[in-house]
Amino acid sequence: MASSNRRTNTARCGWCCRPESISWRSCARARCSARCRWSPKAGEVAELIVNFETDGRATVSLESSAQSTRDLAEKVEIADPGVLEGQVLSAENGKPIAGARVYIAGTPLDLTTDADGRFSAEVPGGSYSVSVLAPSFASQTLDAVEVPAKGKAQRSIELTPAGLELAEFVVTEPFVEGSLAAFVEERRTSASVTDILGAEQISRAGDSDAAGALKRVTGLTLVDDKYIYVRGLGERYSSTLLNGAQVPSPDPTRRVVPLDLFPTEVLQGIVVQKTYSADMPGEFAGGTIQLRTRGVPESFFVRISAGIEYADGTTGKDGLRYDGGQSDWTGYDDDTRYAPSVFDEPSLPSDPLALEAAGEELAALGYSTREDSLIPNAGTGIGVGDKFQFGDSDISLGYIAAARYAHSWDDQLEQRNTYSLFQDDLIVAEDFTRRNTERSIDSSLFGALGLKIGELHSLNFTATQLRQTTDQTQIDEGLTSSGNIDQITELEWVENELQTLQLDGEHSLPQLNDLHVKWQVTDSKAGRYSPNTREYRFTFDEQLQDFTFESFNQQRIDELDDNALDYGIDLGMPFHFAEGIDVEVKAGVAQLDRDRESSIRRFRFSGRRPPGPIYEFEDLLQPENIGPGGLR
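RE: above sequence
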C-alpha cells in the first residue's frame, strides 16, 4: 500500500494543503463554504473523515494515496474572506515590538510582526482567539476576536515585560514579644550557637514548665524532670539566667535552680546558648539557659484558665497518706509539722523536765500512715494586663499580673534491687518493693510594670514568686543487706521557693553616636524548708509473722536560704565603615554577690523500749514512755 498523507482544507483557511490529502470545513457561523468534487481512481486507497461539532460546523478530511488529491485541493477557494490587522506594543513604554509571533486559533497561520509591530492576515469571517509571544515579554491571548466576512478587524495588543519591576511597597505589622517570628530573627542575628523557644511554640506544645519545654531542644537532656544536661554535660556545667541575671537555687546539693520551678505562663521565651560569648557569665561549659519573663502587653487582656486531669493508675485509686495540716492544699505548712522551738538552739536543754516536754511534743506530730482515694489533678490561672498612653505624647505605661495554682498526685509502685559481687558472682544484696505517693502543689505570682518613652528609653520592674511543695509518703519493704526483711516508712514535706525583684532599663542615645545602654539590678532569694521528715523501720518477726518496731527512727529538719544580688551594665556602639560593613563594639561590667546558708538537724528517740512487740510506732511514743533520757 502506498503511503498516504493528510491534506487539510477548510472554509476558513482553504490554502492549508498537504500532499495527497484534502479536507473541507463548512462554517455556519461565518456563512462560508468550500466546495470540491473528488472521484477515486483505480488502485487508490483513501479515507474520508467527517467531524461534526456542537456549533454546527463540520470538518471533512480526505486521506488518499493518489497524487490527484493535491491537484484537487489546490482548486478549493475560500468564500467571503475577512482581514485581521493588529499591532503589538510594550505595556511599559508603548513602543512597538518587532519579531513577535502571532498565532490565530483554528488556522495554520504563523505570523511575525514587522518593525512597527504590525501584522495582517486574511481569514474566513468568524470569531478567533489570537495569541502573541515575544522574547522578554509575557505571552498574551485575546479571545472572541470577531472578523467580519468581506470586512476588516483591527486590534492593539500590549505585552508586559517578563522582568517588570513593580513599584516598592512596605508591609508593616506590630512586633509581638514571644512570637515565633521575633525569636527566629534573634537567632538569625545571633553570633553564638543558640536554640530559641518562644511563648508561641511553648503554648502549642502544651508544656507546663520550663523543664518540659526544654526537652524538645536538640542537644538537651531532661534529668529527674527538672535538670537539664547540655551536650551530655551535667547541670553543674550549665548556668541559668532570669532576664539576664543569675538566680539562686533552693536545692542544697546543687548550684543550679531546678527548671520545673518556672511555669510557662510567666515565660516570654527561652534561649539556650551553647557557645561562650563575652557578655555571658563564664562559669559554664555546657550552655547557658536564659529565661525571659513576659513583658507589658500592647493592649488590654484578661485570661482565665482552669483544668482537671485524670491520671491513669493514680486518680481514683487508693494512695498512701498521713495526717497533715489544715492548709496543706495551699502548699504552706501551718506549723503542724514544725518541731518545738527548743530544737532551734544549737544544743538541747539541760533541764530534764524541759527535755522530756520537748520529746513529748516532738512525738505528738504523728507517724501513722493510711490509704485514701486520690482525687483528680487540677489547676487554675488568671492573667490581666494593659498599656496606657499619656495623651498625644509618646510616653506609655503598662502592667501585667498573673497568678497560678495547680496540684497533682502521683502513685508509684517500684521494684528496687541492689547487687554486690561475691566470689566472682553477682548476688542480690537488697531487694525492695517501694510504694510511693507524692502530692505536688505549685503556685506562682508574677507582676511587671513597664514605662516606655518613645523608642529611645524603657524602664521595667518585675516581681516573681514561685513555689513548689511536695508531700510524700513512702514505704520500702523487702530484703536488706543484713538478711532481715524490713519495712521502712518515710514521711516528707518539702517547700521550695524562689523570689525575685528586678529593675532594668534600656536607653538609646542618638547624640552619642547611637550609644545603646542596657542595665539591670536583681535581688533574688531561694529557700528550701522541710520542717520534719520522719523515718522509722520495722522488721519482720518470723515467730509473730508480722512487722514489729526494733530501734531505728529518725527525724530531720532541713532549711536553706540562698540570697543573690546581681547587677550589671552593658554598652554598645555601632560603627559604619563602608557599604555593607557595620560593626558594633560592646563593653560591660557585672557583679554577683551571693550568700548561702544551709542547715540539717537530726533527732531520734533512743533508750529502752517497753517489753512486747510494737506494731505501731505511735504506740511507742506515748507520754508515759518518754523520759528525760529518752525512751523508758
